[in-house]
Amino acid sequence: MPSDLQGRTIAFLCAPEGTEQVELTEPWKAVEQAGGTPRLVSTQSGRLQAFDHLDKADTFPVDTTVDVSGHTEFDGLVLPGGVANPDFLRTEPKAVAFAKAFFDAGKPVAVICHGPWTLIEADVVRGRTMTSWPSLRTDLRNAGATWVDEEVKICEDGPNVLVSSRKPDDLKAFCQAAVEAFKR
């Protein structure tokens, strides 16, 4: 497995503040352990402030911004959760366009917890089957998705592979499924 993602670069799209740290760091490690290169993409340069639920956690250096980079530089996308993170991203047109471009290009996307809010705003969940933090169930259904309560859901009924999970407890399965999707 160490070279499964050799030569592949995976974008992690996060707001400047509010990302659930473990939903950033665990998939990041999984990509690195599989030989891939994770890159942190945000709406602002500098450092992003991650959170452990509602408490400030560590900060992380931003590699590039949605103003500078596009989907063509990446082989896949991870959208971590945290309530504030996707709520901010869905209000930023360039962040929404960045995420949507992965669907338009047929590239794999992995999303966890509250992360689907950004995808709802991008109008890319219609006809897809996915999971999320339970409070997004109605939002996803209203956006045309089929919501399921599963540890991880891999949906191939669309232009790309879409991997989704509910919460930090699902990270082991989420990371494994995301790496598999990014290998394709």
Automatic annotation (TrEMBL):
Keywords: Hydrolase, Protease. It holds the Pfam family DJ-1_PfpI. Residues 9-180 form the DJ-1/PfpI domain. CDD domains: GATase1_PfpI_like (cd03134). PROSITE patterns: PEPTIDASE_C56_PFPI. It comes from the Bacteria. GO terms for biological process: proteolysis. GO terms for molecular function: peptidase activity. Belongs to the peptidase C56 family. PANTHER family: DJ-1 PROTEIN (PTHR42733), PROTEINASE (PTHR42733:SF12). This is Intracellular protease, PfpI family.
